[in-house]
Amino acid sequence: MTIRKTMTAVGLSLGLAAAPVAVMAQDSEEPNEEQGIQTMDSETQPMQSEPETMQGDTETASYDDAEVDAFADAVIQITEIRNSYAGELQGASDQEEQQQIMQKANAEMQAAIEEVDGMTVDRYLAMAEQAAQDEDLTQRIGARIETKMQ
């Protein structure tokens, strides 16, 4: 039962951790203000933002231990950043203030990913998307996160 709870928590962490960075990585000419806010509030939104990209793919990427370690490090850092901004976001007085907080958090998350040795934002997003569809990869990442968090 403990492993099942851990995997659920890791799955949520992966989705929630990827969401704010995914918003930052999108090159939209007309940004949707609500999208950034929803990614911090919704547990289902993160992996629904770009579902078509993997549906047509029959091949799955294979990640070595170093890549999984780097990804786990990035997830831990992003989760800490997200948690540090959660209270500030909830205390925001209006959508404009929420948007400013999200932009600040997204920039910090993006920088944190880039600081992890062997990780880029694009690589992080690809691995997060793969993990959402690959239970074995999710378990490998979860085990690394659990080990690193002890």
TrEMBL record:
It holds the Pfam family DUF4168. Keywords: Coiled coil, Signal. Transmembrane segments: none annotated. InterPro entries: DUF4168. Residues 65-141 form the DUF4168 domain. Residues 1-25 form the signal peptide. Residues 26-60 are annotated as: Disordered. It comes from the Bacteria. It comes from Allosediminivita pacifica. This is Uncharacterized protein DUF4168. Residues 95-122 form a coiled coil. Residues 35-60 have a biased composition (Polar residues).
